[in-house]
Amino acid sequence: MSPPAPPAPRAPPVSPTRVAVIGAGTMGHGIAYIAAMAGCHVRLTDARPESLPQAMEKIEGLLAGGLKRGKLMEADAASLRGRLRTAAALGEAAGDADVVIEAIVEDLTAKQQLFVEVERAAPTGALLASNTSSLSIGQIASVMTQPARLVGMHFFNPVHVMKLVEVVTHGPDSLPEAERAVELAKKLGKEPIVVRDSPGFASSRLGVVLGLEAMRMLEQGVASAEDIDKAMELGYNHPMGPLKLSDQIGLDVRLAIAEYLHATLGRSQYEPPRILREKVKKGELGRKSGKGFYTWSD
Ligand code: NAI
Question: How far apart are CA 29 and CA 104, in angstroms?
Answer without folding.
Answer: 11
